[in-house]
Amino acid sequence: MGTKKRNSTKRILETPPELTGNEQDLLWHMEHGYQLETDSLGSHPVLRRLRDDEVLRPPSANRSTIKSMQERGLITETDTRDPLKIVWRVNKKVKK
After folding, report:
1. Which residues contact 94 (CB under 8 A, 6 or more apart)?
2. What is the pTM of this model?
């Protein structure tokens, strides 16, 4: 039998030039294995690596950064079991 080549299924989004450095940094982390979490009000953002549960607190990201990314359609909320936490994912419908 022949061997099959596996195509990489990881999507790397091309970030639009109008994004701030904070937004680009958050998107980069989210595309490389981290999930963005905030409290129920959308403040206190934390990046959590899913592989080993490492937590990073982005120093200059805040509620307005998250709100701006959501309004542009770059990130969307996902369902969680914790009513006091919001988990954000990169929106799959973002055009390159």
Report:
1. 13, 73, 74
2. 0.73
